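the two lines:
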Amino acid sequence: VTASYGPLLDALRGVRWPARRAVGAALPGAHRSRQRGTSGEFTEYRLYRQGDDPKQLDWKLLGRSDRAFVRLTDDRALIPTWFVVDGSLSMAFPDAQTAMPSATPNKWQLAKAMAVGLGTVASASSDPVGAIVTSASGMTRLAARTRRGTIGEIARTLDGVQCGGSQALAPLLTSTPPTARVVIISDMLGDLDALIRTAAQRTVAGGIVECVHVVAREEVSPPDGAFLARDPEQQDVQRLLAPNAIAAYRLRFTEFRADTARRWRAAGAGYTEARTDAPLPRLIRQIVSGQGRSDSPHAGLG
Amino acid sequence: MLSFATPWVLAAGAAASAGIVTLHFLSVQRPPVLVLPTARFLDDGATRAVSRSAKPSDVWLLVVRVAALLLTAIALAGPRWSSGAAITRRLVVADALLRTDSMQLMQSAGITRQGEGAPAFVWMDSVDAQGAVAGLRVTLSSALPMAVRAAAAMVAQHPDVDSVRLQIVAVPGQAIDRDGWRAWRNAWPGSVQVVSLTPVGTAASADNTLGALPSAPRVVFDSVGPDDPVRAAFAIRTVARKDGTGIAVDAARLVRVRRAAGGAPDAQTKSLPPTAGSDSRAEPPSDSRATTASGATVRNSADGVVTIRWPTSGAPAQWDAIQDTSGAIAVRGVALPGAWLRTARVSPAVLRGAHPIAWWADGNVAALEHTTVDGCTRDVGLVVPSSSELLLDPAADALFNALMAPCIGARGGAATLPAFIRDDSLDRSRGKAAPASAFQQRESGSDNANPTWLAPLLLLVAILLLLLEWILRTRAERRAANATVQDRVPATVVRS
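prediction for all of em together
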């Protein structure tokens, strides 16, 4: 893994990322499975039915109660984790080309770190980790693997990405396994409607979708003065950013973020707003702890 | 010294430059571009605003634009370069009758200034007009194109001329067409100076007894026999007017004809000394009396007696006697061909201060007039044999009309000029001669530009400046399009 991610990975040592729900049939892993298996962790008793394996009979209980019960245990399985990282041009904000000086990482740097950090956490549970990255040169797909070096490969790929274009993310979402855990890292300024719709279909089908909404600090608090604000992905969108227009801008942007969070959660996905000025390990811990889930008590605080 | 053929083009260029400068102070302020992915959440309003600024925007662009515009204006204005002081030349419009005594004419017109060089003359031919002295109509507008062409030719011949001064020598008693005068004033681009011949003491006018007389004078003959051809000639030109069809005899005007042998002095008349150097442009006295240079008060010849001394033989007093013949006599532009016997030649001393009336074919004076205390005396150096019928010819009417006309001193002076001339030229004179560039423009456009390479060079430089302006403007637009927050906002401005 690139040395620049070292402090982040050190901060995430020991962090685990359990699945939000029981996963389907898969290779044995760390996540609770919907399958009943032969693990040593007892779950419940059930009356013996014809056809059950006699080895699962609890003989001691049969001796005490003269009734035949079998011991049931939950299975443990792996869950492939896919990262869909938005490398569109709007993610390269702010940087030297957009010429807004900033002491905090820009959205792309945050997205990279989030992908590497979450991938590392997932990989620690022996989950296969894959990535789909959009960029100026198109789309890069890294298959989900569990071997060592997968995270490093993902990190190098992300470091080599040049942000550009405005490729839609929804089609990429459908290319991942339906039961995989998909983490979408984007600023949600692209095909948001299609993306939420696709994510809702996946969650209904039993998939797990996590949304990481990357928001730059400069987007929340634009600089003072009068500027001609130009959308990098839509050149025809040029608006006057004046001091008297900032209040309305903030209001609309806040409403947009709140609405986006509500829609993601309504689709059954997890949602986390990641601001560039927020501590990155904290953001990752927030995601893996499920605070972005709709049933989480921290939901809506992003 | 730099001058321009069309200064209004330069003025227009200066005005346009001022407009450009103003626009640079009122330039449209376009804020720097800020790349903001969330720009869609801003209000969709106007992205430009016009505002005034204390300092002009794009100073170099402004300088290049103004320079290009001014150079173009200078080039199109027809620049001329003259190294010395302004040179003014004079253009004199005068009656063709006055050309016989051009020196006196120039003195009367006051053409004595240094630096103006020899004047150019435009002659109006009023001889063809038939009519009375007061009724003769000389259309000045007919001389207008001639004067303009003469001015253009003068400017073309002398490229260093800066202005042309127009001077009109008005013959007293001439009627001047009002419309023609207006045409003069409207067409001539400078001031017009009108001078009137002042005959007293100055031999200015060669013959201003023009045209037929409105009324015949009363002719009295002294020592003239009944068969004298001169008496007969006078008689047929005065008696004929008594038939009721012509103009009646004006008894108030007296013409005395004396016929004697040549060389006999006339004690009854006394000539006035000449008053050389008098200004012909000066206003004559309003009353009927004038003061001579010697201080003697004399009677104005307007009411005087015309005395004609016409010797029967020999030469008039103080004339040089000669024996010669001539083929014609010219009076008022009318030639009287015939076998004229020429027995006298006017001496320069006699000619001084006198007014020629008639000329021989070779240009010598055949008759002249002296101003006397009670009128004028006209000496005729023409001998007519008793058997000659030359004076009875109708062509000789001009000669007798000239001899019977009132004295020259009776007419003339600026006071006789029409009021509209005085108002337009004298009182309202701007005192500025017409610029020579005006005639260059009319005559040959910019061909007379001096130096000729200056205008193309200026245009070339202007084109280069326009090219530079395009480059600067393109860079400025590109820079504005790529304008960033760093150009305007330091890093500390960004709120944390």
